[in-house]
Write a structure and sequence with these properties.
11 strands, 7-stranded mixed β-sheet, alpha/beta, Aspartate Aminotransferase, domain 2, 2 domains, Aspartate Aminotransferase, domain 1, 12 helices, globular
């Protein structure tokens, strides 16, 4: 049976967190002389001379209403990358513990593991980009504290079979992190709905993709109150700046507009899939439930360079195992997609 304290690092369990000036009082203040801020203000409009809410209470309450998750089950990070790093720092002892990664997948899991000196156990996806449950079971041991599952997966675009993820949740005594950065473009149901069933489940989402706020750097983490409390304990006191919080609050007022743009992106994804399939140098287009397509071509290097020379930037994934010869192409606006297709026809000729 999963018990959080059994996998939490001892020094984190005993840690006395930094107490920020704004976390030491409740209620409304009028005269703030507690945090050594510049009382004259910033040379731009706004209260940016004041430290932001360290727990992003208003933003979490807004996200709570949209996602149907209590605020106490929400943690916000300076991008999902901060959440990934904090999970390693909370649960993995450097030089001792391990993580299971499932390549091809998002590269920051490996980078963050290496930064934190965590042993990496790689279990490659199958040729169909599914989980190899038997191999995962074989490599997991008492020192394996985290498993990262990206679904829809980056760079392959497919959603991971839900029953396979549930098998891992039921049989692994560490933290299972389901990264749903692209969930808004998928037909799959979010694992947020399973939070009460699995105390070892952490679901990551983001405002960078469907919400179009990549520049604001706001990652969302949904987990048990226990796990959220640990992350709040070890995060920097003011990890999300006031401008980012304000921008996110404004964006979250436009749910209908975001949903409409998601529908357009999905339609454009299907259109691109059909049109790319007509090009003779395209060998395979992998089914996608994200806002991108993984495309295998006859000469990925030549096509990548051709597109760059015409100002179109895609991602060359041809050196990634199981993605040999592939480019990852983001679904753009209708106008951008037409430009891409016209340029690809030039390459063909």
């Amino acid at each position: 049976m999963f018990q959080l304290e059994s996998i939490l690092r001892k020094n984190i369990l005993q840690l006395s967190p930094y107490s920020s000036a704004r976390s030491e009082f409740t209620g409304e203040g009028e005269l703030f002389l507690d945090a050594n801020e510049n009382s004259f203000g910033a040379p731009v409009e706004g209260l940016y001379n004041r430290y932001p809410d360290p727990l992003q209470v208003e933003l979490k309450e807004r996200i709570s209403r949209i996602k149907g998750v209590p605020p106490q089950n929400i943690f916000l990070g300076n991008g999902s990358d901060e959440i990934i790093d904090l999970l390693f720092r909370a649960f993995c002892n450097p030089g001792k513990d391990s993580v299971i990664l499932l390549p091809p997948t998002y590269g920051m899991y490996e980078v963050s593991a290496n930064i934190n000196d965590i042993y990496i156990k790689k279990v490659h996806l199958t040729k169909d980009f599914a989980l190899d449950l038997e191999s995962i079971s074989e490599v997991a041991d008492d020192l394996t504290k985290l498993i990262f599952i990206c679904s829809p997966n980056n760079p392959t675009g497919n959603s991971i079979d839900r029953e396979d993820v549930e098998i891992i949740l039921n049989n692994f005594n560490g933290i299972v992190v389901v990264d749903e950065a692209y969930i808004n473009y998928s037909r799959q149901r979010s694992f947020i709905s399973e939070l009460t069933e699995y105390p070892n489940l952490v679901v990551m989402q983001t405002l960078s993709k469907a919400w179009g706020l990549a520049g604001a750097r706001i990652g969302m983490c949904f987990a048990s109150e226990e796990i959220v409390s640990v992350l709040n304990k070890i995060k920097p006191p003011y990890n999300i700046g006031l401008p980012a919080q304000e921008l996110a609050l404004k964006a979250l007022d436009h749910v209908e507009l975001v949903n409409e743009r998601i529908k357009i992106s999905v339609r454009e994804r299907e259109m691109l899939f059909k049109q790319l399939a007509l090009l003779p140098f395209v060998m395979c287009i992998y089914p996608s439930e994200a806002n991108f397509l993984l495309v295998r071509v006859t000469d990925a290097s030549a096509l990548y360079s051709f597109l760059i020379n015409r100002g179109i930037i895609v991602r060359d994934r041809s050196k990634v195992e199981l993605c040999e010869g592939c480019l990852r192409i983001t679904v753009g606006t209708p106008e951008e997609n037409i430009q891409l297709l016209n340029t690809l026809k030039e390459f063909q000729s």
